DNA sequence: ACCTGAACACCGTTCAAGT
DNA sequence: ACCTGAACACCGTTCAAGT
């Protein structure tokens, strides 16, 4: 009586309960995210979609964070890496901005995923491809290795954080309150206590998200090429193996 | 029989159930975060701490995100703003880095809060004070208004994202897997498919978090002073009021 | 008028027990 | 050996009903 009536194609026209695999689970998770949003991609909801119990998923996925990282890596397959080709038009800076903008556009569609990415970095094939592409462009620009290594993190972190920041903005009608409140707080700053804020006024809020994103990339690229070489230190030793 | 035995000073030696106020709620939330971590600062757990039901909190706090933003603003009171004084030693760049480093140190203690801050910006008194201090230093450095406005966001976003990234790292023993896995993936990259990654190898992982943070500030500051002036656009119109 | 008990609709994760 | 039902220990938010 629990679930096994023979003709139980209760969900969609899936012909029979397919065998569980890690890839199958991630595929279903991606589909679920596209149809219902990341907030619905929970172990329980996903198990339900796969006609099983949540416990079964833990055979293939360590926890929710790992699942989300796997979903993000899948999504990263949509990033347009073509600007990294040396044959693409434009100088390396322009092409780097195009590449990173594509990344942001892909992640923008699911800001909650970007938020997760700041914590649990993905490390799948598609993420490696993105890293490779950014490094190729920095190398083409003559950025030396250590600066490129650290600059890579700066660029991807900025892109990811920019996408993450858009969670909640414009989602539910009440969610805009946060930004509204910040706007109000900035515009009503007292010239006595907060002279700088008061002096800038609405200039603080100038520009669209796209303009700011592009400007940020310019700042980072010019800073990466201009800043002093990072110090030479051995590979980060997280624990001295006591 | 539910809870009201007259001598019910069951929790600590709190003499009587104090009247609820927004400030009192946030105070208790901060104390709870310090003793049990942000993940325990839930509406239900907080209500329990205040000897009431969760519904009562919604009279004073709109939702969990707003609560966390309020907690963050309280925490921001600990940031050392003294480097913003024109009388403090060091040139403006050094003092700006000191100020931002203080911010990162404060937020670092509660990375989950930093993660929340990327989404629901705080907008309390202490946040305004921090913004004012950063703007004062940029002004002292002769950074023109529009660049200062956008640069402010870049600097604070970078600092916040850097703190947020440390969630999960070194928390539980299993949580390091994410970073370990990324390390393994980078170091074992195939020279054929990922030549740039393979060429850099362990250089990608060089340096401590502190070194990278400081370098990132240098990059941003030099980029902000060097990048072209942002375009002039009217105040960001989020919705054309249809 | 103000406050809140109790409910609704969910979560992640584990482990003893089944096949 | 492999898989999973059922439980444990929680969530946010709402609203009808109490004082």
Please name the defining characteristics of this protein.
homodimer, about 240 residues, mainly alpha, Arc Repressor Mutant, subunit A, Tetracycline Repressor, domain 2, 11 helices, about 55% helix, disordered N terminus, disordered C terminus, DNA-binding
Quick take:
2 copies of one chain form a homodimer. The first copy, chain A, is built from 11 helices and no strands.
Written overview of the protein:
- Two copies of one chain form a homodimer.
- Chain A is an all-alpha fold.
- Chain A has two domains: 20-61, Homeodomain-like (Arc Repressor Mutant, subunit A, Orthogonal Bundle); 79-171 and 188-226, Tetracycline Repressor, domain 2 (Orthogonal Bundle).
- Chain A contains eleven helices and no strands.
- Chain A has helices spanning 22-36, 43-49, 54-57, 64-75, 92-108, 111-119, 125-140, 145-165, 177-187, 195-200, 209-226.
- In chain A, helix 1 (22-36) crosses helix 4 (64-75) and helix 7 packs across helix 8 (145-165).
- The longest helix of chain A has 21 residues, at 145-165.
- The radius of gyration of chain A is 23 Å and the shape is globular.
- At the A-B interface, helix 4, helix 6, helix 7, helix 8 and helix 9 of A face helix 4, helix 6, helix 7, helix 8 and helix 9 of B.
- The first copy, chain A, binds a DNA duplex (19 and 19 nucleotides) through residues 2, 20, 42-45, 52-56, 58-59, 63-64.
């Amino acid at each position: 009586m629990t679930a096994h009536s023979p003709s139980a194609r209760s969900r969609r026209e899936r012909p029979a309960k397919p065998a569980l695999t890690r890839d199958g689970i991630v595929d279903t998770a991606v589909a679920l995210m596209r149809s219902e949003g990341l907030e619905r991609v929970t172990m329980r909801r996903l198990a339900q979609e796969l006609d099983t119990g949540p416990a079964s998923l833990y055979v293939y996925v360590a926890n929710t964070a790992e699942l989300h990282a796997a979903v993000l890596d899948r999504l990263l397959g949509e990033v347009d890496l073509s600007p990294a080709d040396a044959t693409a038009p434009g100088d390396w800076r322009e092409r780097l901005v195009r590449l990173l903008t594509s990344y942001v556009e892909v992640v923008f569609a699911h800001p909650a995923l970007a938020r997760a990415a700041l914590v649990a970095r993905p490390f799948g094939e598609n993420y490696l491809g993105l890293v490779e592409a950014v490094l190729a462009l920095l190398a083409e620009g003559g950025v030396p290795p250590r600066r490129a290594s650290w600059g890579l993190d700066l660029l991807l972190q900025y892109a990811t954080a920019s996408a993450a920041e858009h969670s909640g903005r414009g989602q539910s009608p009440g969610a805009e309150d946060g930004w509204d409140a910040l706007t109000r707080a900035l515009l009503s700053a007292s010239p006595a206590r907060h002279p700088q804020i008061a002096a800038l006024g609405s200039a603080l809020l100038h520009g669209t998200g796209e303009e700011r994103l592009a400007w940020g990339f310019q700042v980072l690229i010019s800073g990466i090429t201009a800043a002093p070489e990072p110090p030479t230190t051995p590979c980060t030793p997280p624990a001295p193996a006591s």
